[in-house]
Structures
1.
Amino acid sequence: MDKQMTPQAVVASLSDGMTVGIGGWGPRRKPMALVREILRSDLKDLTIVAYGGADVGMLCAAGKVKKVIFAFVSLDFIPLEPYFRKARQSGAIETMEIDEGMMLLGLRAAAWGCPFIPTRVGLGTDVVKINDDLKVIDSPYDDKEWVAMPALKLDAALIHVDRADARGVCQIKGADHYMDDWFARAAEQTYVSCDELVDTDYFAQGDEARYVFWERSATTGVVHLPGGAHPSSCTPLYGFDVPHFKEYNASAKDGGFSAYADKYINGVSEAEYQELVGGLEAIKQLPMPVY
Amino acid sequence: MSTAAKDYSLAELMIVANARGYDDDGEVLVTGIGVLPRIAGSLAMTTSNPDIMMTDSEAWVLSKPNPVGNRPADFVQHNETWMGFSRIFDNVWSGKRHITGGPTQIDRYGQANISALGGSYEQPKIQMLGVRGFPGNSICHANSWFVPAHNKRVFVDGECDVVCTIGYNPARLPKGYQFDDIDLRLVITDLCVMDFGGPEHQMRLVSLHPGITAEQVQDNTGFEIHVPDAVPTTAAPTEEQLAIIAQIDPHNLRAKQLKDNPAGDRS
């Protein structure tokens, strides 16, 4: 079995209006090379589900997004994502703003085939007021009301991992795999970019298989993209690119996204992109900021 | 051992006041969001409540808090348990947690906002972070608020622009809930410490920082707070506490968190 794909084939399998989940967390282990491939395409009207960072900001800035389902969009050391901010402040996008944990429950509900999962999270806040499609229900077992967090069914999920084999066994060695296993399970189609493509026997060594968080049947396609998380991190392989994020953030005030995209994305191949940001070897040397 | 310090900064006074809020918490996960609340949680874990659990803000529970900021290349953190973000929610929903967060707005009900300001919800004037984990935190476990600049832009008249947390607001109380189900603890500001122990959970003045008056606090708050007849002065840090704070924060990042790093005693 060989699930290898090109990034272009991944994007060709997506269509306008789809709901797309993106793994990672803020500036951490985002499938940015796949996001850049979407930015180079004609795709539009996407609903994005993410613990958002520059993935969400770039897609909004490029006009690819109809709706964002989010708890936050942040670059972490730059708290406010500049282009998500612009999109919101111009009223350009629809939203479903929910608690971080509610998003996890929505992905789990989708993964488990449940229409919803009850939770108290969101009660008493604007979360239950601003989201028309979020229902509060009575319980058959007690006298309280509960938020019925709906399944966040994904047409597709995009995830970046440290390494994978051609059959879709995916390994994440960073200290946290975030909610990526739930994104993979919540999606009809899960496309994974990987820094390293390995033989299946790799996972038979030592405890390597302990760092595999979903079985390969949940992986639809594998794209070998070394450095493909840049400018986000893929620890322990590399940290996130602080100067690049600063340049990206500054572009929102000076030049706008078109200037950033003309330099790094539009008509620029991924190999050319990596040369522009210092080359793959430089990416692999990026340190992780300490908190 | 517990000699009250003469020289201390306002940041250090706020750290100590914040730390005191964890004394009786027992075995809970403490999360201080931002430099000063993080130092406060670490101080409490090192001194008054060794049962506290704390993470490295990434994926591990630590048996000893990490110092703040850059650490030596040979530094090894004291991991005791894996605690990736998905497992954080298992802890949140269990209730065994106390966070100190720094909202942009807080209203008379203790409701807080980190999401967006002004305009309409569909088109806010200023988009901030989003609600993050605040809705879940507020209904599942203890919450304290940390306010570096006490003014009417933070303590708003009326409700927060986006209500990210449940508070003591009768109009929003969910069916089957009572105020006792909500656990708002301390509000630590650059002027005072408050809690929600006034009549009907009204925000109440607990202590005034040295040199600050109740009038100053009320004048800088967009709603009426409960002022008891006698309001004590916020206790100064001890020399021992200052020494431990210096170990937790070896690069003195605490000196850069408040404008002009004021002295703790402003009398």
2.
Amino acid sequence: MDVGQDAIRHLSEVQVSVELETEDMTLNIGPQHPSTHGVLRLVARVDGERCYDVKPVIGYMHRGYEKLSEVRTYPQITALINRIDWVSGYANEIPFIVAAEKLMEVEVPERAQFIRLILTEMARISSHLIFMASYPLELGAATPLFFALRERERVLDLLEGVTGGRFHPNFNRIGGVKPNAGSGPTTRKTPQDLPAGFLEDTRDAMDHVLSVCDEIETLVAGNEIILARTKGIGILPPEVAAAYGVSGPNLRASGVKFDLRKVENYLPYDRFEFDVIVGENGDCWDRWWVRLQEIREAAKIIQQAIDGIPPSGPLQAKVPKIIKVPKGETYVRAENPKGEMGYYLVSDGGTGPYRLKIRSASFSNLTILPWILEGVLVPDIIAVMGSLDFVLGDVDR
Amino acid sequence: MVHLLQGFADLVAEAVGGRAEILHDTVKVTVANEGWVTAHSVARDDLDLVFFSWLSAIDWANDVEAGDPLKDEVEERLELLSTVGDLTEGKRVTFSTTLDSESPVISTLVDVYAGSNWHEREAAEMFGIVFTGHPDLTKLYLPDHFIGNPLRKSYPLLSREVKPWPGTVDVEGMPDSPTTENPGA
Amino acid sequence: MMQFVTDLFANFWVSLGGKLLLVATMVPVIGMILGFAEMKLSAKMQSRVGPYFAGGRWGWAQLIADGVKFFQKEDIIPDDADKPVFKSAPILVLVGTVALFVVIPFGPGLIFNDLDVGIFYALAISSLSTIGVLMAGWSSANKYSLMGGLRAAGQLIAYELPLVLAVVGTVIMAGTMSMEGIVQAQISAGYPYVILQFVGFGIFMIAALAELTRIPFDMPIAESELVMGYVTEYSGFRFLFFFLAEFANMFTMSAIAATLFLGGYWLPGVPADVLEFAGPAILMGKVFLLAFVMIWFRWTFPRFREDQLQTLAWKFLVPLALLNIAVTAVLKVVF
């Protein structure tokens, strides 16, 4: 009897004391969550609305690209790597192809380089328009999504017309771009160049892209609530950004005037005039604004490239049918829309790499999360994470 | 370009006490294990290379479980690589050091470049390198109870166990003449 | 025949039953109409079409289809949830809304029950929804719902105050709290009160948006952060109650605003006998105008952060409302 009574009293006491304790709550944001850009899990310790400690858990999408590259030939790898940052598909292939071309010491024909440049800038516009669509949605404004995606459809249709794929073009070949349709005996019979009317349609699409940039700017930039939600939030000092390896628009928003398109020579950017957009404070607002301006600069570059493209010429340099890259190693990096993307290619003279190290932009951009999310409010976690613009395929490779 | 890079490469090699080479527009400086951390400190403070790009390793092995083996025999070792750059002119240096294949140990770079935290975690789980002084060397990509170091050459690619490496031939040939299913061929 | 019907409805219980039936029909119908309006208007603003297939090219049957869909869903209750509280929360939220229909004057004499304390009753009973929201957030056994419930508690209580204070100015001008009386006061004054009480009207609309937890004040729901906030664990017809309550509440808040500030069922220049049957149409017109503004705000603005929301209420709206009351009282005495 006594034991029973004691047990009952103990049970009720235990219940009451647990309910009255207020302590930090461990909130699991993700892996399935509307705002984490993929399968990212944040283990956040929050006290009410303020978060003390954030630990990102990644690896849900790890596909083992680096091990996979060791058992594939170079053309096969080209088909794989545009899936790393799937939002800007074409731009992922470029540094790898340029690295292989450097080791082979192959000179890419001029027309192919211009085509590569136009398609890379279109990938940049596509990636930044996705950011323009999804960032206000995370803050609560649902309408810029539709405007941005409507114009992105134009760019994707153009990409599909040239390469055959909206997201995964697989259009680069070592020595240039894909020269011919078909294969086998039909190869020599069907030379393929840009589709008819592509250049005029691109010019037209760029006008639409510029007009939607103005629309989005009016809708978003003049809105006091968006300014209140993004100005002064998530400030990233340039020294911290450099130490953590943050690159791309995130770094430029912190005031660092550094663009790989100006300093590296993987594509002929030195022939075109464009500005490097720099922000002032390094807060979420600057990161949004830098990307909007970069869309405009990309449209400018494309228009100049269309004016300057050589009217005819070979699309691929003379390379052997089975590609064997001579022994050597090198690191080539490019300005991906998300940041610096690079490939360290170690070749032993075979048909595939011995080791391919992929330096992806979003991985390094994500390392800043524990530093930048310390002590922010829960709604600001979403605002800051969205402004860093990462994609989980890029983080997890 | 090569001449400008040579001057820069020699400058770096002298500052950190290593050996420089230029590989297709990439400056690669090899240092000894003991000088790994000081080389990076010197690069960050004196040479203005404040941007941390990446850190990873290469497993030089003669027996490979997946992929093609090396043509010439090499000394089996782990080569640790890291790339740092500056934010003004776009100069960059890839530092390299050699680690023992059996038990690779080296001190951490977290105090010099904070961004090397996650890169070292990845290198630790993929290659089995132990970074002494690292605050939290837990697995990054792989599940917690994963056994083995996947990027080592001795680690097999499981799908190739089931179906062997076909080599460089296309597994299925392309159709030669147009058919009703594929009139474009 | 008419005599028989009039005698029948003179019986208290029969007329009560008739009124209940009328309210029970009105609430879902109005909810559906406003929901459909929101779908089509938001589609127009976002360069898309909206519901297109259900019911011919206009898609008017979409919400009927949605209602049927919700009814035939499985009733899922989380294991750890506090079942009685979980089940009664949506009912409380809906009751707090439906009870507001009682004091809305649809035409001269067309009111379910003209209480002397009409507006006082309306503001008091709408607070029932707050308790319902808290119950939903607490009993869902889900950390996201809990956070949504806590945010809702803070927000709804904070914005009750500007809502009430904004109305006081109109009550001072009209001299009565009965809703019918306020409309009659505007008719005899000859102008709708919004002309002098524009500050009160602005505060009332902002506070009403906050009470409805619509964007820009939808922190408690906050779809991109908390999945659905306090509504996350609800499915099937329980979710339908929340959904209906939001749209019905949109109607009642707009109707109260229209009655207090815009003249209710009266338009200047319309004679009294026309108002008998045109009154409801005029009121509906004003309500849909205000509902259109609410829908427009929802799709244009992002959401406020919780602390910015509270700052707006306590540091800005409440002092402004108090100032409005003071100025109105002084002017009433002087003129």
